[in-house]
Design goal:
homodimer, mainly alpha, Farnesyl Diphosphate Synthase, two-stranded antiparallel sheet, 15 helices, 2 strands, globular
Chain lengths: 299, 299
């Protein structure tokens, strides 16, 4: 990208992040009894890059889709992501105390409340997709629920996390490592693109290209994540650095080394850009910029 | 009910339970990597009264609704119920080791797998409501997702569980106890009726009467649950008896005593029957029988 594009992307990103924050704040309940809403809001608001919402919104723009539906999809994706972090940080899983620069939800609110807050966030993700109001057609809400449920469940994120837990101490090959991450982080990132696409009427070729873009972006994201786990410090990441090595988890860095992992991330990002170039979409610029952002991120 | 009705109800119930079991077995995945599917199937199959599915199916029959949709609703309700039991039994919540006469999921598969299995079961509940096939219209799937998400989330089951946790050691009044259970168990039982109703086209008056029936049935179920916690043994219940008193949780029995609690259950069940009588439905017999079953259950 050239300089003016980057300037406008940064402005677009900041504007969309603010809109997502505002929508999430409106949809995550405040007045739920026994403090459950407080734990939910703590888990969701005021933190995170909002990559999944940005992907959904940018794809909606690229396919000239239904913007109110895309904002609901964007927030539903972030709610699923947030719930997965809450549960993943719990002592019986990754047992982490730092997330987005703050104490994790179970440290702040206790394990039982963290478990329930995660459960309630998942239900809320589906709830906001089918509000039963005229701005959001039920048939489109159902399509979005279908894509989200498949990405979140046993064939997607939850299944990938189970493989991740079972992989501690194992030396996975590249194909196995990719298969794990295609579910664990890739499924929801790809769904961010396919849900954004579902708000419009892209051609079948464009849909296929966008799905390929989402898959490559998800893989690149994870490779970069593994690199940052080694190269960045906890203050920059906002979460505990060096966790994967400490937990003896297989990563792209442990498998191939740091420099080859960086090359691999670049290669996969090239495939993401290529897929966009093949999509035939009139204005894929923001999606290209998001892919660049994933490659260049430092946290 | 007279004797012939009871005979036909028992036959209907057994037939529907078998159909629900078969549908759940088809929809809960088997081949998920890292054993997640095994934990999910263990949590769901071969156990339980299937009260929520039976309510949904009976209501569908009463409103002459869309049977394939009702079977999906029935199974989605049971998946939400099953996930809530898995998470509720975990050490950070009720810390129980016995459920449906078997070791709880976390005892059998470990806490991390139990957490993930619950999460994946919730996603699956929404997934089966919007399969994207011609037998299940997306608009109806969206309506069912909406009812289920609201019943499962912060304003329903998850919120009620948070109140339950916060109530340990407190002396709640009747109104507070009812408000807690209206969410914790009542919301999903009421949703069983309203989702069954949503598969047909009942009049507004019938919808309101069915919603009232579901609310009364949910409350009666909980009062009977509190009674059984005191009067039944663990072998009969298939779960640990005497838990509420041991955990110093407020119950209808601790609030009003055993005999008055039984009278209260009877009173609330009468209101359930009255609501059905007002519904104007042509054949509410099976729903009446289900209400009787809730009142007479011994486990």
């Amino acid at each position: 990208m050239n300089a003016p594009d980057m300037t406008s992307f940064v402005a677009w990103r900041a504007a969309q992040q603010a809109l997502v924050e505002s929508a999430l704040s409106a949809w995550v309940p405040q007045d739920t009894p026994a403090g459950l809403g407080d734990a939910m809001r703590y888990a969701v608001l005021d933190g995170g890059k909002r990559l999944r919402p940005l992907l959904a919104l940018a794809t909606c723009e690229a396919v000239q889709g239904h913007r109110p539906a895309a904002m609901r999809a964007a927030c539903a994706l972030e709610l699923i992501h947030a719930y997965s972090l809450v549960h993943d940080d719990m002592p019986c899983m990754d047992d982490d105390v730092l997330r987005r620069g703050k104490p994790t939800v179970h440290v702040k609110f206790g394990q039982a409340q963290a478990l329930l807050a995660g459960d309630a966030l998942q239900a809320l993700a589906f709830e906001i997709l089918v509000p039963g109001d005229p701005e959001m057609p039920d048939a489109l809400g159902a399509r979005l629920c279908r894509l989200l449920a498949r990405a979140a469940g046993a064939d997607g994120m939850a299944g990938g996390q189970a493989v991740d837990l079972a992989s501690v101490g194992l030396a996975l090959g590249l194909a196995e490592l990719e298969a794990m991450h295609r579910r664990k982080t890739g499924a929801l990132l790809q769904a961010s693109v396919t849900m954004g696409a579902a708000t419009g009427q892209p051609s079948e070729a464009a849909q296929a290209a966008l799905a390929e873009f989402g898959a490559c972006l998800g893989l690149a994201f994870q490779v970069v994540d593994d690199i940052l786990d080694v190269t960045a410090d906890s203050a920059t990441l906002g979460k505990t650095a060096g966790k994967d090595a400490a937990a003896d988890k297989p990563t792209f860095v442990s498998l191939m080394g740091l420099a080859p992992a960086q090359q691999y991330a670049d290669t996969v990002l090239c495939r993401a850009h290529d897929a966009l170039d093949r999509s035939g979409l009139a204005e894929p610029g923001t999606l290209h910029a998001l892919a660049d952002w994933v490659g260049q991120r430092s946290s």
